[in-house]
Amino acid sequence: MEKKFLEGLNQLLQAPKKIVVLPHRNPDGDALGSTLAWMHFLQAKGHQAVVISPNEYPSFLDWLPGQGQIIKFNQKTELALQHIEAADLIFTLDFNDLSRVEEMEAEVKAASAVKIMIDHHENPSDYATLMYSKPGMSSTCEMVYDLIAALDATAFNPEIANCLYTGIMTDTGSFRFPSTTSATHKAIAALIDAGAKGSDIHQQIYDTAHFSRIQLLGLTLSKIHKIEGTPVVYMYLTQEELNRFNYQKGDTEGFVNYGLNLEGIVFSAIMIENQREGKIKMSFRSQGAFSVNEFAKTYFSGGGHHNAAGGMSLTSMEDTIKRFEQAVLENKAKFE
Ligand code: 5GP
Ligand code: MN
Fold first, then answer.
1. CATH number at residue 77
2. Are 174 and 232 members of one domain?
3. Which bound ligand lies closest to the C-alpha atom of 284?
4. How far is the CA of 31 from the centre of ligand 2 (A)?
5. Which of ligand 1's atoms lies nearest the C-alpha of 97?
6. Least C-beta-crowded within 10 Å: which of 2, 47, 88, 142?
């Protein structure tokens, strides 16, 4: 960790502060795990800290220690705005550009608070006064682990440990993606010693599906399509299909990864219609050299990491699929 960041942070945290901690919209395990762990740490140090999420999160995360304290901006906008306006410090975790908090972007930008970024996504934007950006890291949770270890290693407790374990686990695909290092495993070992219940967390996240989610997965996989002459597959779900299977937030999490289970496939995509928001959310996963971060940035106004990224499309499903196929064919040489 950079000395400059640590010194700057230590200075800011010397006296009790009013602090807002923000995950990105549609927060995942890493975003919620890291913001909640950081909130617990700050509260234990005598600060007034609150997590404000732009919107809801999936039910497989609604057991995380402290999640009951989260203010959802889309539900309690007035209260959230009061906190943002009064804040001395705003920490933004697990995202690299203020556009990722969508409906909160203008208010966060306008806030007088000092902004501090902690994140592992590539190509960070320049909005924060203090920045801890490390794109090689497995997860923001691993960065928060390092940060707390550097600030006060005695501060780890079961709440912090369970939150951080969760985000490291979900962002590494359960410790299997190449971003998983020996340092990741050492952090996990220390978190278990501090009270993280690994087996319970796995069960809470992966073994609590409702029946229709598994059926929706079956439908998605039955329609998987390979683009002729390329090692690329895609899947898609229309709003009608989601409705038919009683779609709830988080139900499609992880579906895109199945494409990479196929031998020889190095790029898998899923396109999911969201009629209410008038867009199609796209998720991209790759194995090896092909950068889905670049692909998402170039073709679908998105971004993320080298092997895991997302983007969106504002046209019909039919047109989105056509544009996706076209984009893949333009990149054909990169797969050879
Ligand atoms: P997912 O496919 O799971 O939604 O996202 C994969 C990764 O890409 C995550 O790290 C996520 O933060 C990032 N990501 C997803 N969608 C977008 C997007 O629209 N823009 C950017 N910049 N990053 C995204
Ligand atoms: Mn992350």
1. 3.90.1640.10
2. no
3. 1
4. 6
5. 22
6. 2
The distance of Cα 150 from the centroid of its chain, to the nearest Å, equals 24
Residue nearest to atom 2 of ligand 1 (CA): 283
**Is residue 52 within a helix (H) or strand (E), and if so which, with residue range?**
strand 48-53
CA-nearest of 112, 93, 142 to 18 is 112
Check residue 70 and report its DSSP letter.
Answer: P
Tell me the residues surrounding ligand 2 (ion) with CB < 5 Å.
Answer: 30, 94, 140, 171
Q: Is 312 in the pocket of ligand 1 (CB under 6 A)?
A: yes
CB 329 within 8 A of CB 228: no
Total count of domains within the chain: 2
Closest ligand 1 atom, CA of 95? 12
pLDDT in tens, 271-303: 999 999 999 999 999 999 999 999 999 999 999
pLDDT in tens, 219-263: 999 999 999 999 999 999 999 999 999 999 999 999 999 999 999
- Domain shared by 224 and 144, yes or no: no
Q: What is the extent of the structural domain holding 293?
A: 211-335
Q: Residues 194, 290: one domain? A: no
Apex CA 276: angle with CA 273 and CA 282, to 5°? 30
Asked whether the beta carbons of 36 and 50 are under 8 A apart, the reply is no
CA distance 79 to 71: 8
Q: For residue 24, what is the DSSP state?
A: P
β-pairing, 308-313 vs 303-304, is antiparallel
